[in-house]
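Materials and Methods. Structural model of TolC family protein. The 427-residue sequence of TolC family protein from Desulfonema ishimotonii was retrieved and submitted for structure prediction as follows.
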Amino acid sequence: MIRAGRLFLFMAVMLFSRHACAYTLEELMAHAVNNRDTIREYVADLEKSREDVRFFRGNFYPRLDLNYTVNQLDDDTSSENEKNSIFAGAMTLNVFSGFKDTYDYQSGQYRYTATEFQLDAIKQDIQLAVALRLLAVYQSKAWLRVVEDTHTLYRERYTEAKLKHKVGLLKKADVLKIKVVMDDAAQNVRDAQARLAKDLNDLTRTVGMEDRRITLGQLGFTAFRKLPESVKTYEDYAPVLLEKRSELNALRSQQEAARLQIRSARASVYPRADLSLGYQRYGENYLPDGGDDSEDEVRLQMTVSMNIFDGFQKYTDIRKARLDSKSVRYQLNELEQTFKNELRNILEDLDVAFNNYQVAQESLTEAEENQRINELSFRKGVATATDILDAISYLSQARFNIITAGYGIFSNHYRLTRMIEGFDKNI
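The predicted structure was written out as tokens:
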């Protein structure tokens, strides 16, 4: 473990020692969560949900209305002057409406809770994206290190081959063979450099630092200094997933909101009772207190109303509310099964990655020894050019396998963390 681990983890240790003040994974996650417009979009949705709750709460308060009316007639009548005005005020309070106001308010609260869970989910998604982007940069850096070392080995063997050819110990064809492979390795170096640059660009975008580009020297890779511990079983993680996953909790809250909307829709079949207190003042001119015949009226009124027929619209609303509730329940069931399946797949991938890492350790040891033997044999003129080229290729492949297996362990570890809602929620 120590021998093979140094290949995948050596760079993280060295970079940490050189850049003690570099961005850590946690700092990059915090920056992304606090600065991405995607988060602000969900925060705006949360604020709208809060306003919806306040709107529904307003139905419990009395309503106050004032109006002032000025009338101009062509002549006086028996009941009105040519010029008159009416000032009126009314305070109305709903006494009963089938508890619709209560159900709407409670439903709004559940929708607000659902929006909170959706915000938590996008925060978790962004933290996962940042972790995978930083891991991709680390992998590309390790990949570049391998292809550079491989190119160096080919260049050294090419130099030795040219000297052997000059003294007649090696054929020209063998020298050219090494040259072709060396040139191909140089192309691989350029490809790896471009890949690293693109991964840095992707990390910059994911973190939300477009105004100041992230460079390799600004990054710390301490998160990859130690391999994650071996995982538990599906039975251990599944209950945690079903309990904590924000998307599931959001749908559960939406399901409760839909259930309350059914009751709210049913309220339309009940009578409605409103209590109102009104004041009205009649004026003989444009001013409400003008003239000797100005009159005041105060009226307390109870109104009970009930719709008998509206073209079956209220029953249509009830059926729609029930269908909405069923739709949310179906979504919840589907998402639960999808997450369970993803959890199983992640655990399978993690198991394969750990096994691959163990095999890659042994292969790397063998490839290093094989390359050492062939290098000595080539210098003594025993091994052919093909032998030394194959030995270098096998060593590079073994190192790539270590990197790939390490990436598989870390990437699936972070996906598992996301699956059980394990990233920091207090960022």
